[in-house]
Amino acid sequence: xxxxxxxxxxxxxxxxxxxxxxxxxxxxxxxxxxxxxxxxxxxxxxxxxxxxxxxxxxxxxxxxxxxxxxxxxxxxxxxxxxxxxxxxxxxxxxxxxxxxxxxxxxxxxxxxxxxxxxxxxxxxxxxxxxxxxxxxxxxxxxxxxxxxxxxxxxxxxxxxxxxxxxxxxxxxxxxxxxxxxxxxxxxxxxxxxxxxxxxxxxxxxxxxxxxxxxxxxxxxxxxxxxxxxxxxxxxxxxxxxxxxxxxxxxxxxxxxxxxxxxxxxxxxxxxxxxxxxxxxxxxxxxxxxxxxxxxxxxxxxxxxxxxxxxxxxxxxxxxxxxxxxxxxxxxxxxxxxxxxxxxxxxxxxxxxxxxxxxxxxxxxxxxxxxxxxxxxxxxxxxxxxxxxxxxxxxxxxxxxxxxxxxxxxxxxxxxxxxxxxxxxxxxxxxxxxxxxxxxxxxxxxxxxxxxxxxxxxxxxxxxxxxxxxxxxxxxxxxxxxxxxxxxxxxxxxxxxxxxxxxxxxxxxxxxxxxxxxxxxxxxxxxxxxxxxxxxxxxxxxxx
Length: 543
Description:
By secondary structure, the protein is mainly beta. 7% of the residues lie in helices and 59% in strands. The strands form seven sheets. Strands 36-37-38-39-40-41-42-44 form an eight-stranded antiparallel barrel. The radius of gyration is 35 Å and the shape is elongated.
């Protein structure tokens, strides 16, 4: 039996719980049982707490804090944040001291020191944070810190945070409080997956623009983020929020050169670049590149490069290249390339699209995917499975490919390569006039569809354009609608006939090949149009 009695919002640790005699259970299963009917979840690092470890539970009635303290022991710390109880391995303790000083009536100086509670040694690179003022500092090599605030008539709550240490907080109260002065409390959110996102962000291209102090700050403070109306920065290290900027989600972010923030719920503009640890919505634009460690929802624009490490829902527009882990909806638009591990939207580019699982792809040169659920449109399409490739050459792993040798009533012998998917395919062919004459050569491009497919009989339909030329200045064009009924001699070989309805146009040259059954012919101003029914037949090899 597992029961949690309700309490005030976010007073998770003081809630009374009742745990029955459930015997042996893994820590992961136990924590899920505790939160099954509650309004919070547990967040923890699997390296610090092994979810598969087995514990023996013989029954308990009391507060959640006492239960967790008895389960994990004194080396663990339990923190409440909105929607979560964070379980941290924190065997060490800090001593935080601070004092107030002022040389100016309109300014307050905060000075302090941090040391190890057991060994009394100075602790460098400890994050000192005043969350409501969005102020953050790192201690120096001697464990000292100092900063200034412009409003001396407030009380401060300083919190010292460092990995493997328990958070330590102290209040600094003014000697003469000002009646009626209130400091607006900040709104916060917690991201339990922050460490994974931060690891990806700091291993990629963005690591060259994130300072070591910002990395240490993010490691100390973890996934607790504050909200702010705006921030302005020159570079990631020179921001209106200081080095605390990577813990703040802004509604408006202006980065003159570049910025490194927690996330955006509104608009972010960067002269050169924008880097965000968490989610971004609804508009982001930069002169060179954008990098988002979480999800992107809305419109993302960059002169060179966009990257979203998780999910994109909306539009990515880049002068060169877009990349996202998952394009759940919307479009990627670029001049050179688009990359997505999975895509349910449209990839549109001038050169190359790549996706493991693709929605639809449209490119000027090549599309590459494993599984395609929509269509591929481009000169070359490559996929493991794609029912609707529209291109000249389609390398579809599970799609049919064929090579056909045929002869038509214009005395042309043809060699045609057909490749594609289960439904659509492309055609690329060449022909030679065996009767001689001026127009000896032909090039065919086309799009076909498998209309009927049976063990012994099949019918395909094709739209084909053929250029007939002497390889000089003289040529004419034929557009045809073809039907290819075929009888399968074996699994690989088929005999086929190809009746076609054709429209031919070109200059009025008496040496042109007149072929097929001419339905209608017209000549005007040294040009001609011919409507005809034509026929070809041949042998096809399929694999």
